[in-house]
Each structure stands twice: as C-alpha cells, then as structure tokens.
Amino acid sequence: MTLPVEGQSIQIHSYKHDGLIHRVWQETTVLKGTRNIVIGGNDRTIVTESDGRTWLTREPAICYFHAEHWFNIICMLRDDGVYYYCNLSSPFVYEDKAVKYIDYDLDIKVYPDMSYTLLDEDEYEEHRKLMGYPPVIDRILQRNVDKLIRWIKQRRGPFAPDFIDVWHSRYQFQKRYRLKE
C-alpha cells in the first residue's frame, strides 16, 4: 500500500454514496502520512464542485483524516480563532496521490469557544432516501456523531489545545521549505 509522504502535495476527493465525485481540493501538503492518519495543510487552494464550479479557500486549514473513524475534520484558522468543520464520512483511503472518502451529508460546525451545531440533517434524510443508504450506515453515523461530540467536549484529537499550533507550525515550515527548492 502506498502512503502519502510528508511534504508531498496531494488532492482531496470527496464522493457521494452513489460513487459520483462531490468535491476536489486541488492541493494539500502532507504533514503526516501513515496507514491510519493523514494530516494535511492548505491555504488558498482551488476547490472544484461536481458541477464544475470552482472557488478558492479563504484561510489556512489543517485537515485530519483517519482510516478507522467515520468523519474527517477541517480546522480553519481565521482571525477570530479556529473554526472546525467536521464531515461525517467514510474512513479515508489513499490512492493515486489523493485522500478519498464518501461524504454522508451530516456535518458538525465547531466554533472557537467549542460550542457546536449539527448541520444538514435534512440533506442527509434526502440523500439517504435518494441513494438508498443502508440502515447500518445510519447506526455507524449516529455513533460517530456521538464520538465527535465527546471529542469536542473532551478537547481530544484535533480539538486538543496544542493540535493547531503544532500542525500549523509544521505547515508553515513545509511552505517555506518548498519555496526554497
């Protein structure tokens, strides 16, 4: 199995349950790459939507993917603090220089004060019916919503106080190093 290498530029591919591409982030720098975890950083990267529209991310972000958890976490560094966007998704796979996962619509937005909101329940219901999500997906996703909320409350994983400082510093170093090459 190929693993992403620290410093390597990769893409992030989000799919829907029906196998169609949902969104692609063009460039993310690998900060840590193992069989179970990929941590990446990006800033002002081009994002392409399934309909071909493109947009540019507005702020630096640290991305956390895990091969055993049914979620991924995007930590966005803004002037007024760190915001977290948690996607309920399949565990990631890494192939063809891309982190790939299935987006299951539900999201949790976490604010700098660690308050949070569950988003897109209506979108989840619509897609669950439209794409025929099996009942086991409902159970897995509900358990992972609960797990994410525990992580937020316990300041665990990407929500830990030093997570952003450590990984953003590493991202800044990688950017400086790549510019010198």
TrEMBL record:
Known EC number: 3.6.1.15, 3.6.1.6
Identification of the protein by name: Nucleoside triphosphate/diphosphate phosphatase
Family in the record: Belongs to the Ntdp family.
Record function comment: Has nucleoside phosphatase activity towards nucleoside triphosphates and nucleoside diphosphates.
Keywords for this protein: Hydrolase, Magnesium, Metal-binding
DUF402 domain segment(s): 18-156
Residues that hold Mg(2+) 2 according to the record: 105, 107, 120, 123
Biological source species: Jeotgalibacillus salarius
Cofactors required: Mg(2+)
Binding site for Mg(2+) 1: 87, 103, 107
Keyword Cytoplasm assigned: no
